[in-house]
Structures
1.
Amino acid sequence: MAEPIARKLLLVGWDAADWQMIHPLVDAGRMPYLQRLIESGVMGHLLTLQPVLSPILWTSIATGKRAYQHGVHGFAEPTPDGTALRPTSSSTRRCKALWNILAQSGKRCQAIGWYASHPAEDINGVCVSHQFCVAPASATAARWPAQPNSVFPPDLAEPLVGLRLHPTEVTGPMLQQFIPQAPRLDQRDPEVRRLLSSFAKRLAECASLHAVTTALMEEEPWDFCAPYYEAIDHVGHDFMAFHPPRMEHIRPDLYEVFQGVMNATYEFHDQMLGRLMELAGPEAHVMIVSDHGFHSGVTRPRQEVDPAQWHRNFGTFVLAGPGIKKDAMVHGATLLDIAPTVLALFGLPVGRDMEGKVLVNAFESAPEIERIDSWEAVADPVFESRARDQADDDPEAAAAALQQLVELGYIEAPGEDVQRDIATARAEQKFNLACTYIDGKQPARALVLAEELAQQFPDQVRFVILAGQAAVAAGDAAALGRATDALAALEPQHPQVSLFRAFHCWLGDDIAGALQHFEQAAAAGQENSWLLCRIGRAYLRLRRWPEAESAFRKSLALDEDHAESFYGLSVALPRQGKLKEGIENGLQAVALLHDFPLAHFQLGAVLSRLGWYDRALQAFDICLAMRPSFALAHRYVSLISNRLGQTEKADKHRELARRYLAEGVPQPAVD
Amino acid sequence: MTSDFVTVVSGLPRSGTSLMMQMLVAGGLPALTDSQRSADESNPRGYLEYEPVKQLRTDRSWLPQARGHAVKIIHLLLRELPVVAGLDYRVVFMQRPLDEVLASQTAMLRRDGKAAGNPAILRPAFEKQLAQVEAWLATRGDMTVLPVSYHRVVSDPLAVAGEVRTFLGMSLDIDAMARAVDPSLYRERSNEGRF
């Protein structure tokens, strides 16, 4: 076993925490505890996964695996007997979470409030499920017993019950901490009532979670403590629209009163963080993670949209503690890197079935990293008994048993509304799984699922769109044609129709045609950073460098963290003689999105033009680690190696390039 | 006769739950029942059921009425009983060999002109459900459970009645409870226990 770097790790989950909100508050001295962590440790963006839905993402953080590996595909799922819906269960997760791995490795763990954590798991330590702090509608402040199985070990439930705050116990002065002008509000206004009631509920849940966490940290031994705070996301969905600057459609009277809610919520989290840091002690490592960001500026949606569209692709990452660099940046991190990094901190091996990497640049000296094939193969009787229970749930047999009970007259058949809800939940799960496959670069699998959905629900536009998106990712022009036709028949004016037509041209190598459709879509009012980037990419392919540059700059003006647009500039600028500026943009691109082989390739190409061969070789090495069959990258390495007199290496890479081309291995289109 | 708790008679359908309800009523414990399901060939002495129980997943408003009563709730719906501060449940859980239960269910469905499921599929599903319910009951601090063998009820009703009275802590008339058991009904149906 490698030498552990961490003796204790506090991993704090802040759902939807975003640097765009945090930076101004830290600069103004309004988040002093987070500032202390940043200055004594490392920070960086954390790239999210698709789809940007919290139960899926937090399970990926905890397992180091994507949804098609871990099995959590959404917020809700049908019960095994198919009679009702329930929040996605902990038993649905197919693989070990950090608390299972660390617990079986002898660490005492506390997992508190995570998604898909009910029923609470049997671990070496304490597990408090997501349902413990959420008051059901039937509960009152005086009568709110613990949900069965919401705490492990069960005898801890009773002492924790009294620590919770019921929403009706949130008082006016508590609300005024966040909404100082609350007494001015007219509570006969239904919108005001909704907002205040929602805020009280979120505050109660958050305060309850914090009280439970601090009590457990004080009273129970721990090596790994992982509380999950959801309020920044929940409050954001209600109040980010009121954050300055005022959006046109927001009522001025409500803006006046609610404009400070988001900042106050972040400050509240900083105060809670301060207490957690105090309880953890100076020798503990502290890691703060968010699953995604949250649009807070000009990119905020202006109309009613799916809640996930409020989510930005970059969350936050902070790590501080002994052996961690001080006041430094970590680049290119993703959610999938958290689990490997935690394991490395504890000196435990990383599973080869974990796609992410250890964030080695966070460490003062490179940690020793051991590998095993999979933690799933490491015997753990407790977890295996749980897995057996799950395997026994044969849906067909369960449905037959239910039918028998219905026929016998002892139970009601699920009503049509329940059956419809179950069908919808199953479709959502399939939709999310397809999105995960696209994100995980398995578009062919996504396409199969998306086309099934489109066939099953032919009037659902979003399933047809998904099928088209999967077809684009898979490069399947025929499937894209089917989706385009289906969408045009359903909604001829849908903006996605012109985008699909653009991609159809693109797949047929008609770049000018694609550009025309993209520009039409932009002119029709769809202009956003993604579309401007598509226009830029088309100009790159047409070798119209100044127009490409202009499109990428416009894209970045709308989204300063758009990695692909930085990449575009790293191509367009050197073509106009601005080599160093190109390199700067290329570095920005890979800092935001490490898993971007073309950007590393482009960096290598420009660095080699400047004669900076060592750095160029580094860039090509990273590119080839991600895309080993990239023939042109091998040729660059061969040429540079020759110049450096490394003939053996040059020969090897020249041969690899020749072989991949001769074998017809698909090659990326280089801009 | 009053009590602060709800007496729940549970188990698989055709495991003797109606028989236990009849014993409790005979002993003096009122049953929560609406008599919507009348006696028939499968249960000549009646089912003693309460129709709203079937909707326990969506409507629990009747639960306060169940305090101080016996109510029949099949095994699968036990999980739907909410945790309510100040309310406890005492569960008399009927046990009968699964092959007999399945045979009896099949016979009952056939009498009603309905199709029964394949026992080879149902058996493991019911076994699994019972194991899950048993494990789950152990986690509920507000539920105490008395497992009762259907065969013992038939062979030694007086002893079982005494055990039930002790479990419930009530002054039930155990002689009347024992008299409620008519072994001839079981003997008639024992032939159903073969496929």
Note: Residues 499 and 518 of chain A are 6 Å apart (CA to CA).
2.
Amino acid sequence: MKKINLLVAVSALSTMAFLYLPLMAVAFFSVNDSKYGLEWKGFTLDWYVKLFQNDLILQAASNTLVLALVSTFVSTILGTILAIGMDRFPWPGKMNTALDLVMHLPVIIPDIIFAAAMVVAFGFLRTLTSVFDPGLLNMIIAHITFQTAFVALVVRSRLAGIGKEIEEAARDLYAGTIYMLMKVTLPLLAPGIIAGAMLAFTLSLDDFVISFFTAGPDSITLPLYIYAAVRRVVTPQIHALSTLVLMVTVILVICMERITRKVNKKQKRL
Amino acid sequence: MKGLSLKGINKTFGKVHAVRDVSKDIHSGEFFTLLGPSGCGKTTLLRMIAGLELQDSGRIILDGEDITGLPAIKRHINTVFQNYALFPHLNIFDNVAFGLRSRKVPGAEVNQRVKDTLEMLELGEMTKRFPHQLSGGQSQRVALARALVNEPKVLLLDEPMSALDAKLRAQVQIELRRLQQKLGQTFILVTHDQDEALIVSDRIAVMKDGQIIQYGTPAEVYDFPKNRFVAEFLGSANLIDGNYKDGLFHTAIGIFELEKPPAWEKGVIAIRPEWIRISDTKPLKNGLRATVTEIIYRGTNLDISLVPGPVRLRTSTYSRIKIGDELWLDLAPKEIAVLNE
């Protein structure tokens, strides 16, 4: 037994190392006072300082944030409405299955296929108006299309957890649809909506493939910038930038986890 | 008419005919119970009265007003749900105030009415607590308060005791009965628990397969069950088949006299275990000589099985009885219920 336990522990640790060593190396080189090479030349935050003096990077960061914020805002609203509509409207059985499938598609379709489809769709729309030239608007629309499905899935699982009896109780106590939504459904859904929004935000922040296919010359985001920069040469600046993006993502994921856990604890008897 | 009238209510779910042509008048101020096994349509009927389910046909009249087409939010009827369905994000005060606030009752009146109702149900100390901090009995009373604060014309209770343990349940049943008598409001209870139905109700409707098969006061339904189902569902009964001829009921275990001649020639009688008396000497009428085969000790009484039959009886004078004893049983004619269906 002991031997097996040791084996399990060692393999778990090596898996962790396999996963996290490259990331730690990036973080390590981002504070290494050497422009090239793998040698440790002392601690510095110069690369981080330089990041904030680089107009291209600042522009990319602002694009990334605008894209993530706008698309998350819209997709959270759409996803929540979609989830409520799917779960609470008395769809006939077959329609329900079909809707379910449609909702899961954006989640399981490979990004590259989704991105190519976006290119085709925007190509068609471009023949009607030049608004759909590659650029931030296209990216926002493309991000919303895939984020909405993720938000809807998260919100829907929360809806299923709440159950219908609570809403029946509200109706039995004279609550009209709007009053019920504002006082009962949405407050109970809030943790699901927040978790969904954070997931959507993280996805948008990290997205490369879909952004790559829909971006225009003025709408470079951080992942696109990193990709372009790395093709030339990997500089410590890129390491610093990657580390920052990574940290933001990790913080978001931890917050999401925290919120979900806290609420689940509080509403255990729900 | 004051009260609730159901007229020809039907409801199907796909191929299942959940409620079949139910018509019943429930008087104002009455404690009315729908009693039946699970799947008999009692909860569906309750949900249609609440307006949470729409019947396929039939009408619902409340105090002379046709409410058939009104949604739940327009019906002056409130419900205590089976799992209480308290709002987990609201404290007890806000839970109870919910119905008043959604009807835009002025704040001062809301405060007063909620306070009065919580005090009536001995929940005055709990106003700031949240549902997940309450015990089962407290949750049940909050659910009751949340419905009663609206002064509904009819209060619906969907198996409100099923989540409570047996001892608490017995206590809550009596409290519920007292509360209803004090308020004089119409209560409609759905339950599958026959003891509960007998304890709390003014009238019981026994349901099976979507129909009301017997209706009456607890004593009427218990003492004069109409058929095998009612006799066995409410309490237990010795059901004895036989033929009625020449003024006597002929059965496999003996020939018995009945109080009144039945409407049939071949049929069933029911004798409740506690209606049978043990006699030292041969009774003048309807005596049965039987041997004890099993004795179950229940504290306040004994449940005894005997042959021929087997016949089950319940007695509280048991000091001398043991297995193998031969006894005279007195099946008095007035203690025999004739089943008419």
Note: The interface with chain B takes residues 165-166, 168-176, 179, 183-184, 187-188, 266-270 of chain A (CB under 8 Å).
3.
Amino acid sequence: MLEIGFFYIAATVALVATVMAMTRANAIHALIYLIVSLLAVAVIFFLIGAPFAAALEIVIYAGAIMVLFVFVIMMLNLGEKGDKQERQWLQPSIWAGPAILSAVLLLELLIVISQTAGPVSVTAVSAKEVGLALFGPYVLAVEIASMLLLAGLVGSFHLGRRYLERDNLEKQGDQ
Amino acid sequence: MSETIWLIPLIPLLSSVTLMLFGSRLKVSQIGILGVASVGIAALLTLLLAVEFMQNQQVIQLSLWTWMEVAGFAPGISFYFDGLTLVMMSVITGVGFLIHLFSTEFMEKDPSYARYFAYLNMFVAAMLVLVMADNLLLLYLGWEGVGVCSYLLVGFWYQHNANGHAARKAFIVTRIGDTAMALGLLLLFTQLGTLDIQTMVGEANRTWQVGATIPTIACLLLVCGAVGKSAQLPLHTWLPDAMAGPTPVSALIHAATMVTAGVYLIARTHGLFLLAPTAMTAVAIIGITTSLMAAFTALMQTDIKRILAYSTISQIGYMFLALGVGAWSAGIFHLMTHAFFKALLFLGSGAIIHCLHHEHNIFKMGGLRTRMPVTFWSFMIGSAALAALPMTSGFFSKDQILLQAYQLPDIGPGLWMAGLLGALLTAIYSFRLVFVVFFGKANTEPDKDTGWRMAVPLSVLCLLAMIGGWFMIPVSEVFPASDGSHPAHWVEYVSISVPIVGVLIAYLIFYSGRLNIDGLVSSTLGRRLGQFWLSGWGIDWFYDRLFVKPYYGLANVLKSEPIDAIYGLIVAINQTFNHWLSVAQSGRMRWYLASMVAGLILVITVAANLSVGVL
Amino acid sequence: MDGLNIPLNHILLVSSLLFSIGMLGLMIRRNIIFILMSLEVMLNAAALAFVAAGAHWGQPDGQIVFMLILTVAAAEVAVGLGLVLQVQKRFKTLDMDHANRMQG
């Protein structure tokens, strides 16, 4: 039953870290909380018998994607001024309405989940099975995913390139 | 000569076209010569034709070419010439020529001299086509042609708004009658299969019994056209306003020729009317009613031209009476003599207006007897003929009409007595005019007397108005002969004496002042009656209320496009929704997100309800 | 690790909570960077639900969908962060309320 205890701990960590991430004024602080949250979710994956997914969660989510965020935040160089601005924006009057909406949605989800209570057991699914399914029936999805990544690559390259070029042009204009 | 009658309408038409195209480049004298000479040549040709006709009494039927041919309907550009046509052509070209000559002096100072003669020549051409037409469609062409020329000439001085209104009124009111006439033509064509007048009348006599329904309806429709053109009740209101045009135009178009086109139409189709006694009675009653109404109105008018206009309406009423009682040749005879003396009176009034700085009010004239002798004698003779004093031309024609009316069974004596009342009134108002304008104190000094180009036509018309009664019009072959019986002698004596009594009354009231009517006029009843007559029996007022105002009201309602408003409502609703939706399109992303979440909640609620049955 | 008796309900509960928190963040934050982070949280919550369901039925499909979500998240973040740089350049701010040119 140790694993079940681990699950509840990991779940609690994930929730608390997410809430903290959502409410931080400093982007880097929020990002670190978010990484913690993702790691906690990876633990849950591991516990419910999806070790391959857990590994991917850590490598890609907590690693690659979060590093991207870090780079961008560093490039923007928000600093102390940005923090003050964020704190000012986080007034109760602003988040009261969205909080109610979210609560209602959550309530609905909870009710639906409680209605569909199934047998309480999980089965481990090994990386081998996942690999066979991925390159068997799901091979088309893999291709589509690769196309999506290519599009993302081209799109981000395009956006970033223009950003840099204009920057250079403006610098030339200043001189 | 008989092969070239088509030249007679063609020459004025060519002159008209020439003046329209090159009028602005010609000198005033050239314009005058062209305008007068074209009608003069037409008159000369008509004279030659008349001489030839007197010798051989030959009816000419000349077909130039087929106008159009559609499904068996083939009206030709073809002319028909008999005694009736000859009378009409003589009046049109003869009186027309004199009026053209008069116009050269009257209109000399006008900047639109060429335009004036172009219209006037075109009118003569159209009127000639009207009377020479062999079929009713070509007649209708001429009929509308003279209508257009009348419109153009009434509104000749279009710079004044009132003249434009008068022209439009003349055009629109006559158009009502013309529409009825067109319906009549369509009815006749569908029933008889032709519009050639001679063929048609023969066919009608073979097909229909006397008093049958269809010829009655057809004749009544033709009467509607004639009523509109000849300014009879109830379509007479345009003629007094049509006096807005130049005075020679009033003389030619609105006294001598065009307004008698209705009389000509009925006389020309008398073969049909003989089949429809109801229509003939209607014509007689319309004629005598109009005649009396217009005579009463003329008594009260102060504008010299309006007096003459109502007098014209009244005299055409006599012609209608003649046609209605079957006195065809008397009607045409009165048409001719009326053309002489009414043209004379109009030209005389034109001379007065010309020499008196465009003064129209007769009470601002006076004492012109010694200052304008030619005009005075013209007016004397014209008024005598109008009043039908013995030995003048009007006497012969009007006498014939009254006597033949008397002989009609049942309503004859009634018509005769009404006609006598009309004759009495005619004598009173015409000599009221003479006494007020030419005798008494001079109120306005004429700045000039008439020139020769005015004096000559006046003199010639004086002569015609005097001796016109002795002309024998060659229509005995055209119309069925009357039975030749004469009423009792006392009827004739009364007919002769009534106009003399009328002149005496006018003399006593307006010249010697022996008969004082001031008390009568200023009494309440007298004043009301006078006002009523002055306004032309309130008919204009009545039409204004009945047709014009509701029409304007309707137009005003439609001006705001009520039907479009329905579609406008759809547009407005769409725009309102658009405004609402573009409020949602705020560009604020968090607002979009909140909306999406709200939608998501809704979708989940519904989906959960449908699939699981919870919530 | 087979036969663990973690109730599926509880995993889904965690997933729902994560999703709601992410959504709340999405709505209350004005900074684009935080909005993107909130999106990551939401995607992650969905992925968790999929993996849990897959584990429940003992099938690999849940994890495959998780991988597809991962792909989508990666592409989205790449493009999204490019846009963040553009917005910062153009508006001199990361406040999404300023980028409202599509106002109707």
Note: The mean pLDDT of chain C is 85.
